[in-house]
Amino acid sequence: MSEEWKNQIKDQINTLEQLEEIINVTDSEREAIETLNTRWGTTPYFASLMDKDDPDCPIRKQVVPSLHEKNNKYGMTDYLVWKENRDTDEVRPDSIARQYKDRVAFTVLQKCGIYCRHCFRKELVVDDDLKLDFDVDEGIEWIRQHPEVRDVLITGGDPLLLSDEQIGYLIESLRDIPHVEMIRIGSRLPVVLPHRITDDLKKILGGYHDVPIWLNTQCNHPKEITDKTRRAVYDLVTSGVNVGNQAVLLKGINDDAQVMRELHQKLLSARIRPYYIFYCEPAPGIDHFRTPVEKGAELIRDGLRGHTTGLAQPMYVIATNIGKIPLMPDYYTMDKDEEKYVLRNHRGELTELPNIPE
Ligand SMILES: *Cc1c(COP(=O)(O)O)cnc(C)c1O
Ligand code: SF4
């Protein structure tokens, strides 16, 4: 039973024939699959959440290739080299991406549970354009030699697709490094393959330790949260792993105040703490998912801040080569002089507060 997750990977849906058994594939979807030279695929579990007849289904759009991927007016070539500062003087293993002094992203493999059509790392995980060498021991050794790194974000691909033994080795090796204070895991599996959270994995990730594990998943639409995901998150949280969410703002999927509110409320009801909403990054071939930059701040203004639980508030950020830049709504402070601040709330009401000189 606990090996069910391996079957889900083995039985991955990644051919037109398999897809046709699950949904009524449209002509343009068929043409995209047949003509685009791209890696795509999903677990049968996540595929089962797709609407059979609606090509605009939010899950289907994240899974099935689209002819729009041919357009690349606004995407940057060699996006990841720019974004992950791979072309700088600092000598680092391929597995280490760095934008900050105290924390790094540690890429440990290229495989994923689903190959998201909007993936900003698609040059690496989807299109295979960027050839990198992910040597886990080399990465661990580099971290060991950099005492300023206190926070290691294990990413991919999807790191939870590694075997239990490999994950155990990785966690133990990082916890063995005196300056590593916390470990983060970026994994979509609690959403696209919740079966991966097995009893054995809970033993590896769970239990009390001075160096905690924080896991951020990616869930973009309320339809993605099922009882299976709720259970997997409960299992993680109760074994001691903190679970957060990093949503991506996607045109036609969640660029709507009501959908965003429902998503963030549902995340909390599944014990997942909203962390970020990312602006959809200018990777090549994903123009059709991108909105104007302001859109995310507008959604927070119109759907989240003040409109629902304070815990349901992610920060809206644009991820760049120099780090994540917040782009939050800016209506709160309406006016300010030596005597007072004029503040505005989500209903448009104003209030005043005395200003204190320094
Ligand atoms: C996103 C990212 C981090 C983590 O950023 P936080 O804002 O701390 O979550 C660290 N390093 C790289 C290279 C990243 O892309
Ligand atoms: S799971 Fe993450 S890395 Fe993998 S395809 Fe989706 S967005 Fe990209």
Automatic annotation (TrEMBL):
Stored Pfam families: LAM_C (PF12544), Radical_SAM (PF04055)
Modification sites for N6-(pyridoxal phosphate)lysine: 324
Coiled-coil intervals, chain numbering: 2-36
GO molecular function, one term: metal ion binding
Keyword Glycoprotein listed: no
Classification via InterPro entries: Aldolase_TIM, LAM_C_dom, Lys_aminomutase/Glu_NH3_mut, rSAM, rSAM_sf
Descriptive protein name: KamA family radical SAM protein
Domain annotation Radical SAM core: ranges: 98-312
NCBIfam families from the UniProt entry: KamA family radical SAM protein (TIGR00238)
Required cofactor names: pyridoxal 5'-phosphate
Lyase keyword on record: no
Residues engaged in binding [4Fe-4S] cluster: 112, 116, 119
Alphabetical keyword list: 4Fe-4S, Coiled coil, Iron, Iron-sulfur, Isomerase, Metal-binding, Pyridoxal phosphate, S-adenosyl-L-methionine
